[in-house]
Amino acid sequence: MEKNLHSAADEIQKALSSVMALLPNSEPSLPPRRPSSTKCSARDVMNSHIRLEPRRYSRPCPPSTSLAPLVPINELSICAICLEADAPMPEDADPMEDSSQWNYWKKCPECELPAHWECALGQRSCAHCNVLFVDYD
Predict the structure, then answer these.
(1) What global pTM score does this model have?
(2) What are the extents of the domains in the chain?
(3) 32 strand-pairing partners
(4) What is the distance between the alpha carbons of residues 21 and 1, in angstroms, rounded to a whole number?
(5) How many Cα neighbours within 13 Å face the side chain of 95?
(6) I want to staple 113 with a disulfide (CB 3.0 to 4.6 A). Which of 8, 28, 78, 80 is the partner?
């Protein structure tokens, strides 16, 4: 049995010496370089776990012209004073009455900004032109 142990230890020593010849020295050396055939940027190396689009496609595109037609200023239906589409209703008004279904408008004669009739009552003038609102013709 002791012969068996000595022969096994000798075989292990032979195998270890043959493997140690193949291993590099344990002294510090330069790290191996990556192959230069595959070009990787630092961005690709750090984010290798996700797929990134090439940077040229990720940059913001210049604004393009919209195909939606522009609405002329005289067709806008937003009040220049309260900035709402529908006129504010009094507290005692019934929303189902016919009179509350209609909005009456005035306009500035200079810049033609619309304003609700209720908002433009009295001496309210256009904030842009400082001119009193007039009725639509």
Answers:
(1) 0.39
(2) 72-85+102-137
(3) none
(4) 31
(5) 5
(6) 80
Q: What pLDDT band is residue 26 in, cutting at 50, 70 and 90?
A: low
Look at residue 88 in the predicted model and tell me its pLDDT: 65
CA distances to 3, 4, 18, 24 from 7, rounded to whole Å, are 6, 5, 17, 28
The 10s digit of each residue's pLDDT in 68-80 is: 566 565 556 788 8
Q: How far apart are CA 24 and CA 88, in angstroms?
A: 86
The residues near 84 (Cβ < 8 Å, ≥ 6 apart) are 78
C-alpha to C-alpha distance for 82 and 133, rounded to whole angstroms: 14
* Tokens (6 digits) for 10: 């000798």
Domain made up of 72-85+102-137: CATH architecture? 2-Layer Sandwich (3.30)
What pLDDT score was predicted for residue 57? 56
Average pLDDT, the chain: 74
- Specify the DSSP element, H or E, that contains 5: helix 2-22
Please tell me what DSSP assigns to residue 112. -
Residue with token string 């309210």: 124
